Each structure stands twice: as C-alpha cells, then as structure tokens.
Here is the input.
Amino acid sequence: MKNYYTYKPPILIFFFICVMGSVIFTACTRDESKNNWDINFDAVPPQQTFSQQKSKAPVQQEVIQTQTEHPKSLPAIHAPFLLKTKWHQHFPFNKALPIIDGQHVVVGCVNIALAQILYYYKNPLQGNGIAHHSWQDQTFTSVLNRRLYWDKMPATIRPDTANYSIDELAALIRDISMINQTQFGIGPHEQSGAAFDMNRFVSYFGFSDEIQQTNSNNPQFFDIINKELNARRPVLISIQGHPIDHMAIVDGKTNRNGRILYHINMGWGGQHNRFYDLSQPIVLESLSNEQSIGQTYRFSNHINLYYPIKPCRKKTCTSNNLEKNDQITGNQIKGQFDSKTDQDRYDNILLKGITVIQGNRGYANQAFYIHIYDRFHQLLSSHAPKSKITQYDFEPDMYHFTVSLCQNKTQALHCYELEPDYADYDIRISTEVMTEDEKIDLFNNSSPPVIQNELTDIILPRDFKKHIIRVDALHPMGLPVQLSVTTDSNVIRAHMDDHFLIITNESPKNLLPSKIQITAETNGIKTEASFNLMFSAQRVWFGKLIDIPGQFNHQDSQNSHRIILENRCRLTGYNGFMNQAFYIKISDKAGKVIVDATNQPIDQYFDRGIYQLQTALKVEQHQQTHRSKTISTNYYQYQKGLGDQYVIHAYCPNFNYDLDLLFQDNIDSPPVFQTVFQPIILGKNAKGLSIPIAVIDPDGDKIVLSAGSDHPDIEVRIEKNTLKIIPHSPEVKTTAKIMISANANQKQTHAEFSVFVSKINVSIGKNFELKGYFTSQDDRNHHPVILSGDCQITGFNGFNNQAFFNEILDKNMDTVMPASEYTIENYFNGLYFIKTSLKNRSRYYPYIADKSDRYTVKVSCSEADLDDSFIENLLWSMD
Here is the structure.
C-alpha cells in the first residue's frame, strides 16, 4: 500500500505583540504675574516692575520621519487610499473584551487590522462556527454563526454614536480576538499579542483560501502590493520592529517625484496614517521635547505580506459544510476532500462508552485528521494516528466531527498532502448503543441560552424618543436563539429586531419607572433577564465600570456629564495619548467643587450621590506667594481630529445596584440659586440696576426664572438670566420686597430681598465690592456703606499689595479708622463712608493712568445684620 505524504504548508499562524502608538501630550502654560507696587516717601517714584511670562509655543503634532537622505518632515500628500476607518485599540473598540483591574484590555494590532479589512469589504453577512479561547483561567465562547449588521457598525466613532452601534462593532472585534487566541494586556506597556491564523480566518469569515504569505525579500514584493491595490484590495502587513513587531494595512500608493510611496493604516486612531517609502526603515518618534510616544519605535524594511485578502467566491471558499460527496449513514461517514483546506463537519453524532473510530483514505495510515468536539463545540481531540484505529471512552452525549487534512491546533503546522486519487475518505464508528430514554433525555437537555451583556438599570432623559440596546445572546451549542421582550408600561413600547432591543417613548409627559424583561429561548428552554428604566432631565451614568464619551469642539469647550459615584472610585481620562491630555473637575449636585480640575487619575472615596464631571482643555489656576500673585492658564492645544474626542473611565468596584437606592439617587431636586441676594439701596436719582442670576438644576432640567415686586414704583423683570431693577421715580424712604422664582420640572425655589430708596446709593451686604478710580494724585473718593459686626476691608488695584489707602469715616465724616494701606479689621454697627486715596500726608503711591488709577475694595462682614428695620432706621435717620 502506498505510503502517506505530509508537507509543511506556508506559515499560517503568526503571533504578534503590537506597538500601541500612544503619545504623551504636554499642557502648555500661560502665566500672568503681579508684583508688589512699592510705596514712595520721596518725590520721584521708581519704574513699575511688572512681569509677564508669555505662553509656550503650542504643542505640535508628532512628526514622522524615515531614515533616508530626504527631509525629516514631508509635506502632506493628498492621494486616495482604500480604508476610511481610523480605528484604534482602546475604548470603545475594546468594549466587549475582558477586564483587568477595572480596565478593558487593549484590542491588539492583529485584531484591529483584521476588523478594518472586514469592515472595508462589509463581508461576510454571517459568520460561521463557534470559537473558544482560554486566557488567565477564563474560557470564552464566540458563536459566529450570526448575522453581522455592517450598516449599523460606525466607520467613525463620535460622542453621539449610539451604544448599540458601538456594541455591534465591539462584538465583531471580540470574535476576531477569540479566533486569534489573543493574549490580552491593558497597555500601554502590556500589549495584547495575537496569533494570526489564516486558516481560521478563512474558515470563520468566509474569505478566499487563496491567501498566502511572502516578504520583502521577494523580488515581486512591490509588484504584488501594486497588483492588490490596483484591484482595490487592502494588503495586510507585519513589520519587524524594535522593541516589538506590528501589524498594519497598506491601502494606497502615490508617486512623488518618481518615488512610489505607500499609505499605511497603523490602527492607532489615525496617528501615523500616512505615506511611507517601504524600501527604507521607518522610525516613529517625536521631534518635540514636550511630546513623546514613550520611546522611539524603529521598524525595519523587512515586511511580511499577506495576500490576496478577499471574500471567497465558489471554488476559493473553504467549506465547513458537507458537499454532495459527503454523507453520514448510521455509524459510517463517507466524504471527499475538494481542496487542501476543505473541512467537512458532521454534527450531532451520538457516542457512548468505549468507542472505536477507524479512518481510511487509501494509505497505510489514516493520513487525515478527525477533530472531535463536544456538544458545546469545545475541541476534545485532533488526531491522525499512525494506524487507522483510535479508541476513546465517551460520556453519553452528542458530538461533532470535523474532517480535514490539517491539524486544528494553533501550535501545530502540519498538513497532509492532497492527491486526486486519494481524495476520498471513509470513517467507521463503533460505539455503545443508547437507549431511547437516554436519547430523549439527551435532546431535552440541550442547556439554556445565555444573555452575555449585563443588563443593568438605565436612567434616560425624559424627552428620549428611541433607545436601542444590542442584546448579546447565544447558545453554547450554536443553536438558534429566539428573543422576545415585555414591558409593564403603558407609554413605553419595546420590541426585538433580531438581537436589537428597540425602546420607544410615546408620552414624555407621563413617564414612570418601567421594567423591561427579555426572554431568550432555545428548544423551549428559556433564559430571562430584566432591568428598570428611570428618567431624568439628562442621562445619568452609573455602575461598577462606566465609559463616558465626549468631544471638545474648540479650545474653550467645557462639557458636563452626570454620574452616580459611591465608595472608592477611580476615574481616568483617555483621548488618544499616553497621558490624560485634558482636565476633569468633579462637583456635587449643588455645584460645590469636590475635586479641582486635574489631568491626573482621580482615586478617592465618594459619598453616594449624583456628581457632575466637567471636562475642559484649559483651566486657570491662581497662586498666591509672599511677593507675587500669579494667574496661570494651563491648556492642551485643541487640534481637530487629534485628541478632541475623549472617554472617561469610571471604576467603582463596590457600587450598589439596589433599586431603592437608585430611585433615591434619581429623586428630582429643585433648582439651586448660586447668586447670593443681598439688600440693595438705591439713591433717589438712580437709573436702575442689573444683577446676573446664577442658578443650576441638579437634575439638568430646563429652568424658567420669574420675578416680581410688591411696590409699583420699583419694577423688576428677567432678561436672559439677568434681573433688571427699574425704579420709576420712587419717593425717598421707599421699601420694595423683590421675589424671584426658579422653576424646573414642576419644582420651585424662591428667593427674596429688599430694595430701599434713600437719598444716596449705599452699599450693604455680607460680602460686596466697591469699584472706583482716581483721576489724579490728590483725588479722594467716598463710598457710603452700612457695616455691622466684625468686618474686613481690603483694597486691590492690580498689585499684590494694596497700593492705596482706605480710611473709615462715620456718617458725620469723623475718622473711625485711620487711613491704612493694609487690611482693616474691626467691629462696626452703622452707616459709614470708606474714603480711598493714593496719598496720606507725606506718604503716597504714585498716580499712573491705566496702571494704579482703578481699584476695588472688598468688604466682608460675615455676621452682618440685614434686617429691613435695622437698615430703614439707619437710612431714614440721614439728614
């Protein structure tokens, strides 16, 4: 009998640990320093010492250079390339991948490259088979024989991209990572390595089995690339590099002065996507001292090439299905290998106890592989014995056989040769006979379907019209799963469209908390999952692990996100760089700052409640030193398309999902006035007054302001969050009570204060400021005020020290506190005048127009008496 043949095929399995491609983005700083203004005792004043440090130059984008004699920075090339996607390895592309220490692992360069190629072709319409993967004592199952909704997957991720679209794409990337047996890491220094198994890729996704490998040592290397690009087929490449290798995609070319350059999509969110000379090594580094990718990556000009990558057409398809020559009759299987990569699958074979399997295709040995899977498609054996007989001991159950010429193990590269005269195979199975009762129990015990995604409660905006959730349901055996949904609401409608749950709102005004229940059913066996819908003015995020997207539209953009935090939480930001290149500030519902703006991770304990996360590219920081006051503007340069989109990762491992607590969190609160309303004293000839009103609604509801007066001669009205007080020639000794209301979602907050009409304007309050200016060196100003209790009086005119004098006079213009250029602290109780001047006897601060002429006096009387009768007694007693 003829001996069997074996051969080692071209390398089909390639393991890559990939470069991440993140950069460190450094904040710029703009400082404005104020120095002391020195007092003079003699005639000639010194020159003003005023320093101002200009901002650093804006941070520039990374520069890519190649090791050639050409200039380091090349002009932009506008030429066509095939891929429109700019995907990367972080959120949201890793959303469906495992979690390490509260962070999703990174995707890996192999997986993101293959995902972009599949999306380019939008093929297949449905995957094929079941993939299993074990990693860190976890076992993952991907059922690929489901429809892929390419039209729902987003080519570009934006903050307003629907979650269900992102989830559909993330599920595809998860499936790719499973078939590639990815060894996950969290980055940036621990990457996700993956094995690119061409056979599995072809089998699971229905791509042509013509795919092969070559490298840059091949004289036809560039001809192959050109042929593929001319056929509008992207080319998968792996580049040998230091410190690690990388997989990317060549998807375009251009001619620059007779030199052919090729466009590479690096899979880093658009970073470094540009044209390169592939005959030269590639160096990715930063030329700015303020920006770095952590280290310089050097890629050699030794490149492996995988081609043609294209959907299969008839004869180029690797089939897992049975052809006309493949059949099973009783305990005998007869089939034929149609190609080297043909895989014939035979399902639901009943085996029990001691089982002998004998394979034959005309050689002295078996000379092909029989892969045996359990009912859940977990591989049990992939064996080609030197003899023709193999013996097993099986638990009574259903099993699946796949017959092929190649071994089905990622660590092996062995295949048997195919010759036309030896293409037929025969398999005989000898096993114990199952009783009818055993068969009935077996088929009835097909296990329930699984709903994989965590369906937690959701707080939606009240005015939402449609909300869609991708339900990730599967059966471990790959059996069909039927999904259905019910709701207990009369105004919330829910239905399933394949694996998409569609929730619609028919009456925003009559919303009440609702329960949604989803049922997954296979062969009459059901799995149920439910969650609750609650409603607020804006979306509220909560949970143990949350990813909140956002976008900056310009340099001064400021965004706000509402989130429930509880116990210890860690919040980090990511916008494409190795560091967090933007600022996060945390405030409570009432607007009180809990964590000042920071570009560092936030890790601390929070009392349970709703908080506001405010994000920005720019913050101002005020710093007071002994001799100077500095206002620093720290900012990250806004660049459209580079770092303008971000995600906030919030990890609260001890978050409590108790429904009663969530209802308590979501109780609608009334608006909160941030403006402190104090009494106002108008002179008899006053023209009017405008007061800006700062008010927030903790729930984000729209606020409507209104105001009224109880005196016809004092009119009030609201104009664009400003209170206008308009006197109509009121008499002296008039008092009007002003009422202000803030209304939001049927919740109200009221505030009131009094307006007094006196002979002159008088300032009063617990905290207020007086503004004034000097017209000459000898100018004096008098500011009438009502002071009560312990008060502090401080002046400021642009310098760290108070470069003018304050003196306190009583209503008879007698000195109560002598002139001082320092803070005045004393107990007061009555009507006074604050006298301001640049000169006090022989001591003076020089008058310089537009420098020392304008000033502010800050008055703080924390226990001031603001009772109407107290104020009226003082005012009405004035002569």
Remarks:
- Residues 1-13, 21-78, 286-294 have pLDDT under 50 and may be disordered.
